[in-house]
Amino acid sequence: MHKRRPLFRHLIALFCAAGSLYPLAASSEAAPPVLSRLIVNPADGRYTAIPDETLLHLSGNFFFDDGDDLLNKALDVKREGEALEARSRGLILIPGDEQAVIDALEELDGATTNLRAEGNMVISSDANEQVHYVAATTLRGSARFYYDPEDENRLRLAVVNALFSTGDLESHLNVAAVVQSYAGLNYQFDTPRFSNTVFAIRAKAQVINLLERRIDYDDYEEKRVYDRDADVSSYFQLNADLALHHRFRHVGLGLIVEDIYTRKMRGVSGSAYQQRSLFRVTADYRRDGGELQLSADLTPRASFAEVPSRRDINVSGAVNLSRRFALIGAYNYVDHSREKDTGSVGIRYTLAPMLRFQLALVAAGPRELGGQLSLQLPL
After folding, report:
1. Would you indicate the residue range of the signal peptide (predicted)?
2. Is pTM, for the whole model, over 0.85?
3. Which residues contact 25 (CB under 8 A, 6 or more apart)?
């Protein structure tokens, strides 16, 4: 898999150089609350509550990778087959008419498309700064086309007999997705024995949905690929995440363990999904002029059917251009059999210490695009 490491180096250089243009002295004012930090590390962002204020954070991101142009090409191949079937009913088939369909099916063999998305909500408590209400949903989905070599013989025989139906073909699309959702409480605490260290427990009610389906050649419709209303196995459980965050002046270090309880599940077609605890480390450097953050998975996320396992290393940063505007960017290295590394760039607008808006564009190549959006506001 091709990796764009030169882009990674340029991104780091950009933020380091731009950050040096702004004053880096420690601020005499209390830092404004940033609830989005709790999404990366439940123990980060201590003292985020403001007296008599309840804050809401909403964020979402998605990335769609159809670099093989699977969805459009599969629809074109289906239309070619339907046209061939229509000619067979009119008894106007001649040898060679089937070759275009055979070539298109062979070209599609192994083509994939991938989708990932995430949504988060955090609510701070004005009564207790140690407690936050949290909810999130993540989706990892993938589809792959499988060409049956025997379809070539079926097509050639159909032309000879002048009787062809798209239902005779065995080529098909396999689709799978893992959707994890939870709602719960994020509780932070510290102890005198470990100074400058915050611990956190995120207790949650968790639902895991496993989507698994086969779409035959003659049944293909684009809207069926990621239809979440059928072919889904659902599992409910109580779970928890553990985290810590240690700060030494401008530098922070963190460790997170997600899903301390794990279990084995199965999709509707019998494919196994072995839930794993995800271990992740974080590091951050924050000054008045901007910030730089690293988040790295130590263990991979589990695979399921067509959904490969993945491990992410994300470097993000922000440069404050003024009191209200900041330039943001990130680079995500992914250990994934089908997906490429991605880069993102965007802006953050802070209207008030508690009101923030952020927008970014994510890209990796042609037909590989996504976006990020977040909003924090007082209720």
Report:
1. 1-25
2. no
3. 288
